[in-house]
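Per your request, structure below.
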């Protein structure tokens, strides 16, 4: 994506770390957790690759087209799995956003594709969606008091819901940053 190198590298590290954690979550004994973690790992690593600062690694047009094809395929898979759970709709939106950004970069590599023309409709809709998602995800991380009868729960660190929610929040923030610099 376009923008200064330091924030770009921070995005790369954040997305790669999130992708790595999601890979570790794939070891969960819970099947749905493993399936979700795989899609999130792909998004994390894909976002890390796309966030590489342009000054360091200017990707050729064919690479952006490959990203667009990869994430379009991911969107089709997310659409298929969305029929069983609403969280997969978010995966669909994320995959569509990645495919859109890659296609935009393929159309105008090396410079701002929308400079001087305002925010395109698709970019604006994606910005609104991910802003809402980030706000909702952040609110879900706020502590709530547990019932006294609940007792302590022992969960494997890869199955802790607050960690997976924090990863989703960080990827949502990274997606916003990438869309803003598009």
């Amino acid at each position: 994506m376009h923008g200064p190198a330091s924030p770009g590298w921070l995005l790369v590290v954040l997305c790669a770390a999130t992708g790595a954690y999601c890979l570790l979550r794939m070891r969960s004994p819970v099947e749905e957790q493993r399936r979700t973690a795989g899609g999130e790992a792909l998004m994390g690593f894909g976002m890390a690759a796309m966030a590489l600062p342009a000054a360091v690694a200017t990707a050729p047009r064919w690479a952006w087209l490959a990203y667009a094809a990869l994430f379009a395929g991911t969107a089709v898979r997310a659409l298929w799995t969305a029929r069983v759970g609403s969280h997969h709709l978010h995966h669909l939106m994320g995959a569509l956003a990645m495919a859109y950004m890659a296609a935009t970069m393929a159309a105008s590599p090396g410079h701002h594709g929308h400079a001087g023309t305002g925010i395109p409709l698709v970019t604006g809709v994606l910005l609104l969606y991910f802003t809402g998602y980030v706000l909702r995800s952040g609110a879900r991380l706020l502590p709530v008091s547990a019932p006294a009868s609940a007792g302590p729960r022992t969960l494997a660190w890869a199955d802790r819901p607050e960690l997976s929610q924090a990863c989703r929040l960080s990827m949502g923030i990274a997606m916003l940053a990438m869309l803003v610099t598009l």
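The chain has one domain: 5-142+159-181.

Regards,
D.
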